[in-house]
Amino acid sequence: DAKTTQPTSMDCAEGRAANLPCNHSTISGNEYVYWYRQIHSQGPQYIIHGLKNNETNEMASLIITEDRKSSTLILPHATLRDTAVYYCIVRVNDYGQNFVFGPGTRLSVLP
Amino acid sequence: NAGVTQTPKFQVLKTGQSMTLQCAQDMNHEYMSWYRQDPGMGLRLIHYSVGAGITDQGEVPNGYNVSRSTTEDFPLRLLSAAPSQTSVYFCASSPLGQSYEQYFGPGTRLTVT
To answer: What contacts A96, CB < 8 A, 6 or more positions away?
Structure first.
């Protein structure tokens, strides 16, 4: 699986959009980009995933660059409850593949 | 649905003791896995299973055993606990056709003294 690089930490004002970047310059053509988050010490929670098109769901939007070497997770209106560690993961979408969670980005939403 | 449940929530062991961490899911998911998370670190895969009777090793399998006799249960056994196994352990499950969305349990915090 391709490796990812994320900033260690970020701050965001409550109500503003949080934009979390991820670099995955060695991504292969069949690898997807996944985002999970972990609030306090709870189990990680799935947010969104995509291959090459931008994706949006009720939680967030995922913007993947045309060359697929980087992506951005957007939380459109961050709340205090969005304070968490966010993980960007790249892997093949295959049941035999496992998730490799790196250190992630610690997002702090400030009042 | 209860989702993914793990017991116990907390456990303290002495070096050399053995124990089993329990994981169960009621969503009929074929895929289940165990991760450990050390302080300030991401998760690392220990073992996984794609169905009853089928298990395989992940990134850090040494010192741990698993079995999958039913779809619902995936216990993790520590054979001889060591201080290096002090960690938080997470169990996860997903349908085979939707492996992008893993459902994680609440975790077991294990301390080995």
So the answer is: B50
What amino acid occupies position A39?
I
Distance between CA atoms of residues A41 and B110, nearest Å: 13
Shortest Cα–Cα distance, B38 to chain A (Å):
10
CB contact under 8 A, B48 and A98: yes
Write down the pLDDT at residue B97.
Answer: 73
Cα–Cα–Cα angle for B90, B95, B98, rounded to 5 degrees? 100
Distances (CA, A) of A56 to A30, B19, B103: 20, 43, 20
Q: Is the pLDDT of residue A7 over 60?
A: yes
CA B55 to chain centre: 12
Q: What's the mean per-residue pLDDT of chain B?
A: 93
Chain A partners of B51 at a C-beta cutoff of 8 Å? Answer: none
Q: What is the mean pLDDT of residues B64-74?
A: 97
Q: What does chain A look like in DSSP terms, one character per residue? A: ----B--SEEEEETTSPEEEEEE-TT--TTEEEEEEEE-TTSPPEEEEEESSS-EE-SS-EEEE-TTSSEEEEEETT--GGG-EEEEEEEEES-TT--------EEEEEE-
Lowest mean pLDDT across A10-14, A99-103, B6-10, B16-20: A99-103
